[in-house]
Structures are given as C-alpha cells and as structure tokens.
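so my prof wants the structure for this chain in the tokens format not the other one, which i didnt know existed until like an hour ago. anyway here's the sequence
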Amino acid sequence: MIIATSTPKKWKIGAELIKFYQKTEYSHILIIDNDLVYQASNGDVNCMHIDVFLENNNIIDVLEVEDHLVDMDFVKKQLGKKYAFLQLVNIATRFLLGIKLFKNDGNQKFICSELVGKALHLKWVNDQTDPRQVFEYLKNGNS
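here's what i got, hopefully its the right format
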C-alpha cells in the first residue's frame, strides 16, 4: 500500500495556500492501493484510477506502508461522504489567528489528511490535522 503526497498540475488557490501554510511542495495526501487512488478531494471522499488522478495531479512523495496498517474497510465505508470545507477554514484561522471557529465533526465529513490518518488508526488525527503532519509522522518511521 502507498501513502503519497501530491499537488495539482494547474494552479489552484486552495492548494497554493496549503503549500504556503505547510511550507511544502505538496498540498494533498492520498492512499494508493494497486491502481486505485482513495482520497478526500473535489467535494467528497472518492476513488479513481491512478491514470485519471495523474491527468490532473503530480505525485510528490511516495511512502510504502504495510497493507495491514491501512484500514481499507474504513476507507471504503467513507466513500461518497462530503468534503469538509469548514475544516480548511478552521486550519487557516488556527494558523493565522490562533483560534478555532468550528467543532470537530467526527467522521461526518473529511479532508484528505483526516481520511488518511484515520485509515492508519492514528489516534491524534482530527479535523485539524494537515497533510504535512500525517506525512512527516509516517516519514519518520512511525505507524
């Protein structure tokens, strides 16, 4: 199983703001299982073929993780759930102003890093977790 980071091929304000805030080349984190990409993006939790994903995105980093570490049953049960746009507002206001505007919604809606982190059973992941936090945790040998 692969956990990867990416960025859109076309300039997008949201992606640029995330890269700026995180100080990274990537704005997104996702799961690749064989030739399928699982992600929270474009309005919902979704799955698509890797070739379709790569038409519009560049993979930045790739980390291989043991299959048993990723709860794919959990991921598949989230497919179709709405994207949590308000979570991005919370992350931005926390970064800019040090305040949180909205409560955590549990597993009602997702951003990419929350989906990936919860699929990995990372207890500290919540609505405020950004892609860099999950990727750096994994990159540093944690799981």
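also thought this was worth mentioning. The longest helix spans residues 85-97.
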